[in-house]
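User
Please review the sequence:
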Amino acid sequence: MTLYGEKRPSADDRPTVQVTAVTWPDDGSESVTPPAPAAEQPVDAGRRPRRARMLLAAGVTGGVLAAVAGAGAWAYAGDVPRGTSVLGTELGGRSLTAADRELRAELDRRAAALAAPLKVTVGERTAEINPADVGLTVDVAATVAAAAEADAHPVSRLVGSRTVDPVVTVDTDRLDAALRKVLGDQARPMTKPAITYQGTTPKVVQPKPGLAFDPERSADAVRAGWLAGTPVTVPLVESQPATTAEELDRLVTELAKPAVAAPVTLRTDKGSVKVPPAAIAKSLRFTADGAGKLTPSVDVKRLRAALGDSLNAIEVPPKDATMTIAGGKPKVTEGRAGQQLDSAALGRDLLAVLPKTDGREVTGEVKETPPELTAEKLAGLGIKERVSTFTTRFTGGLASARSQNIVTIAKKVDGTVVLPGKTFSLNGHTGERGYKQGYRDAPVILDGKLVPGVGGGTSQFTTTLFNATYYAGLEDVEHKPHSYWFDRYPAVIESTIFWPNLDFKFRNNTEHGVLIDTSYTSNSITVSIWSTKIYDSVKTEYGPRRNITAPKLIHLEPGPTCIATNGINGFTQDAFRVIKKGGKVVKREKFTWRYDAEPRYVCGPKPS
């Protein structure tokens, strides 16, 4: 029997089919006599005997069954179904091992072609990508497994042929980076719609579509082009913001404008409060998600801040449990519950009345509010020992404005507990550091020179806090060293801060709580981190200074804003945080910074 699309098996691999003679009892007889050859049958026999017909049918059926059995045995020979090919190579009828070997041989024959640079067009730009650089390869084992599973239905195995596509893998991150390099500035990020307030006036950002490539479709195109050896065109896709310009205009007309057209009365069992339009504008938020869908909501935390003291007659805020260091040991003080408005209900109900021109009233429910951090929870955080401590020194005593700024921010941070997994933001914790918050004018670096500015000196506290968290082995999230190096700070391992643009953040990447303890003297500031010690040691190894530059001499107009300096060399340096645990180095982090040369500023004209 010849199968469609197959070569006839050779003599040595053709399956052997054995047919056994069959007797068919009839009418209770023990045996029957086979019919005589056709030539011996009587010519005038009008009809064959019944027994003869039955025997003939049995013979035909037996032959067919034998043939099918033989063909089935042939079709199921090997692990890979007959007629299966990959990359034009016949793998059918082979064992998995033999198919793997044959496919690898075919890939070896194509090695030069598969290693050749792939021509890729992204938008209007074309470049070549090295397949090895993006991890393009054929997964032989996965391909052979797919071939072995290809349409195992018996009829399909007997008739026809099938082609199985190779399983191609690619490093999607490396491919994405390579394609973005080709894309260049052709990409256009989606402009998400936005509604904000300037005072009580809504300000709108109109939505605009973005233009980029779809990573999944791009990877599919590159896989196919690589195997075919043909140039690849990566399609660019426009992403339309989910909230359209029409919907944005409707939100402004139906919500953003009427929301601040009049105050809202908040009524409770303990009294009433007027919510003015300015407070509504500060708390009504329009948030766009990743798809550009704009959703309005009321931020009750912002509303509380905007209403300020007017809520004092209604609410009593809860007080968290606190921890202090007394006698060299952590001491926990219990907090207390408060009485506060139900935030979820207030936000929902207030949002519902903001579009209205009349009936602008909501009823708030004051509920007992437990502290977020109870004494029991605080005591169970594992804050039991001092993990690290760091001290920097200052001059001028506590009477100087700069020293007072350092002490003010240190007191604000003292006793802060950072829960496991949480990120601490210095700007977020202290808020704005202005005259109202008790800060004074002292030298700050602005546009490359020292000038008087409110809050000068807080960078020294930031550097002290940064080093304390650094030597505790906590995760550095955000910091920026000064543009000039000052010898009161360790090189590279230091940080400045400036409201609101420059922040310092660290994450408590341990399973234990972290307590920030601050203290000061007339000439120093100290920050200690208390928790559970998990590392043997945390040390810094420095590389040599390089690219050293000398300061320039610059004359400035004399006056109260001119601060003379001696000048400082600029340089680049590496610092490595080396963390050991169990006697072994478990982490080695590199920090690098380039310091500019601080000019030598002279308050006065150039000599003639």
Observations:
- The radius of gyration is 41 Å.
- The first strand starts at residue 84 and ends at 86.
- The CA atoms of residues 411 and 538 lie 27 Å apart.
- Residues 1-47, 64-69 have pLDDT under 50 and may be disordered.
